[in-house]
Structure formats: C-alpha cells, structure tokens
Amino acid sequence: MTETVDVLLIGGGIMSATLGTFLQQLQPDWKISLYERLGEVAEESSNAWNNAGTGHAALCELNYMPAAADGSVDPTKAIAINEQFQQSRQFWSSLVERGVLDAPETFINSAPHMTFVRGEKDVAYLKTRYEALSKEPLFEGIEYSEDSRVINKWAPLLMQKRRVGEPFAATRVPSGTDVDFGALTRQLVAKLKDNGAEVLTNREVKNLKKLKDGTWQVSYRNTVGGTPGRVNARFVFVGAGGWAIKLLQKSGIPEIKGYGVFPIGGQWLKTSNPAIVAQHKAKVYSQASVGAPPMSVPHLDARVVDGESSLLFGPFATFSPKFLKTGRMWDIVSQVRPSNIGSMLKVAVTNFDLVKYLVSELRKTHPKKVQSLQEFMPTAKAEDWELLQAGQRAQVMKGGKLQFGTEVVASADGTIAGLLGASPGASTAVSIMLGLLKSAFPDRMADWEPALTELIPSYGTTLNPDPDAAASSVKRTAEVLHLPA
C-alpha cells in the first residue's frame, strides 16, 4: 500500500526548508517528507559558494531602484524588498530563541552594505538615491560620501591607487549582513528531521499525477541503487530550483502553461589571503554592465563560510543548457512545449543586449576577469585570486519577456505549488513562503495567525510607515542575531 503524507517538499534548499519549518511550527501533527536528489541538502543554489550571501534588503543593490528618464528615483520596490528581509530577520530571531537554529554566528554575520560608483552621471544618480532613501525609516543610518578619505575608512581596497580626479561616490549602511544560506538550510532541515519529518536524500522525483481523491501520486527513483517507488501527498511543494519547471510541467497543471526558463550560470574570483581579507569588511555593489541581468551586478563581498573569512568578486556570467549545476545537458530543450515556444522565441529575439553581454563574458580570460576586479580594487593581483564556479539560475520567461524575480506557480485548488526564478530569492524566502501559505491553505490562516504573529511580530503589517515599529524590529532582531542595529 502506498504511503500518504500531508506535505511533500521536493528539493532540499532554503525554500523547502523554510516552508517545512513554518508548517512544523504551525501544524506539528502533519506528516512532512522532504526529498532531495543529491546526497546532501543545500548543495545547489542555497550552497554558500553558489550565491553571494547578501542579506538582500535593497541597501546596496541599485537594480531595485533604477533612475527614471528624468533622473528621479522611486523607492517603492526597495522598501518592499527591505520589508521582506525584515520578516526573514524576525523569523530567524524567533527560531534562534526557540532553539531551532544554532548560534547566529553560524549562519549570519555583520557586513556593512555599500554602493560604489564612478563617473559624473552615476555619482549624481547615487546622490539622488541616497536622498530618497535617507527619508525612509527602514533605511535609517544610510551614509553618503564623495570624500576619498571617508570611503577609504569604509573600504580601503576601493581607494588604494585610485586615479586622481576621477569622480566617485559611495553609500554605506552599517547594519548590512552576510548570510550563509547553506548553513541556515542545513540547520533548518536537521531540526525538521529531529521533530519527526522524513528527510530522504538521493531520491529524485520523476513524475507527478493527480489522483481522483485529490492527492498527488509522486513517482521517484533512488539515485543510489536505482530503486523506484511512489508516495501520495495531500500537498506538494516543488522547491527544486531550475528543475521546478520540469516537475510542474509533468504535473499537468494548466497554470504552468506559457512559462519557460533561461539558465544563466556564474563564476567568482575568490581570495582567502589574510592580508587582503583583513582590509575589506563590507559588501560593495556597483552598476551593472549594459545588458547584464541583475544577478550579474558586480560586487566585492566579505564572506564568512564555515567560520572562514574570504572575499568574492563577481559574478561573471556563464552559459550552460543545464538548469542546475548538477543538471542535464538537455534541460533547456526538455522544457519546450507548444504553449511556451512562442514566448521563448520572442525572448531570444528581443534580448540582444543580454546575448551580447553573455558572449563578452564567456570570452573573458582570467587576466580579463582580474581587470574587471581592478576597477573595484586597483591593487588586485591575479596570483591572489582563484576562479570559483557559482550556481545556476533559471530566469523566468513569460509572455515573451525575461523576468528577473521569483514567482510562485500554484494550482487553482492549492494542492501543488512551485517556485520559479532567482533574485532576491533566499533572502526573501520567509515572505515568499508566507504568500504560499495564504494561497495553499486559506482555510487555515485564521487559526495559524496567532502562531505566525509569535514567529513574525510584524506579520500582517508593514514597518516602514511606522518609524517606531521599524526601529523596534531592527533593534530586537539585531540583539538576538548579534548584529549592529
């Protein structure tokens, strides 16, 4: 007889781990299973070396707040991203207090978020952006300077041997963070297992079929030994990164029609040279190249992974037809359906700048990559930096457009849902999963609301309109997570 579980989580990344944790806190009597096709969880996009580790709060990322044709800026999206990250901080703080997560230093550390630009046009833009954000409560403490002496104190590597007379400017937010999403995911999954969830690695889902009783029959194969099997689930979440589209297509739900994804990979330059690492304690973002996707915005990052401090620079875009680092070469072809081929062809025709950018990135040699780094760090030497492969991202294609956010695709009856897309992804997993809970379990939200409010004190409200609430939330989570307020 086939086993039936209440919830099946497909994929062992931060999304499944976050949703599973929510459900275990809200409905501890439910039977939850998590399947991961690799031998360990958090080995794809959630792995610390496959992402930048930026606690995305729009403190330094310029793509959340582009300039309009008249030079004005709108902080709405930046505020929304920050609100989402505040929910993540509140959730993680509650889990630390409950013993679900280990000491904060094992997954989150202080790393001021900076933006550094050069040239008169970008300096004027950054000043306008600063003036707009400095009025917003969630961005309290943001600093701006065009003074080389001030910027040198913030991030010495940016200023050493900088050309005299070159216009430049920087902003800085001391409360920025570096997050090890791999460690965070592993801790969440370990606690899921401790509390009774079934966590099975080396188990690859092959097919999904809706049964007459409303449950989903999920067929799988054990990747070690090849043994097939089935399980029935009342609710299925597909958190399989780039492979989510393949599994949602196999489910047959009409909501996935018209979607496609475009894979973009990346590489980092990394150094663990103590003399260099000691001089840079921030995450510094800048403007993207023409045609570059948001995930390819250049940045020089302080990282703490498994207790080791290092610096990363990049990412440099790469291309592979795989949807995952451990995917398959025919991934990009296997997604093609009559319902999405027109949209995908339109994306190919209308994104010439992206194609041109990818070609230029693929042609970059190691010395050329170091030259790009030298625009940030003029004293950089090739021998101090090694090349590291980052993760694969599958960007959403829909309606003939390439989208750079994340999107939840769910069936009309709420029995299956999956996540497509990438940035800002992991940083806003809590907000994304809250939205999924509302769409998948609308009849239970009223009963769950008190527990959700305990986990996330600002649940159901926004912080930015209330300066006191914003300051209180930032202060409380900073204390619990051992971060500067």
From TrEMBL:
Asked if the keyword Lyase belongs to this entry, the reply reads no
Q: Does the keyword Oxidoreductase apply?
A: yes
Record pathway: Carbohydrate metabolism; tricarboxylic acid cycle; oxaloacetate from (S)-malate (quinone route): step 1/1
Q: What is its EC number?
A: 1.1.5.4
GO molecular function: any one? L-malate dehydrogenase (quinone) activity
Reaction it catalyzes: (S)-malate + a quinone = a quinol + oxaloacetate
Q: Which GO terms describe its biological process?
A: tricarboxylic acid cycle
Q: Which keywords has UniProt assigned to this entry? A: FAD, Flavoprotein, Oxidoreductase, Tricarboxylic acid cycle
Q: Read off the InterPro entries from this record.
A: FAD/NAD-bd_sf (IPR036188), MQO (IPR006231)
Q: Which cofactor does it need?
A: FAD
Family indicated by similarity: Belongs to the MQO family.
Protein name per its UniProtKB record? Probable malate:quinone oxidoreductase
What lineage does the source organism belong to? Bacteria, Bacillati, Actinomycetota, Actinomycetes, Micrococcales
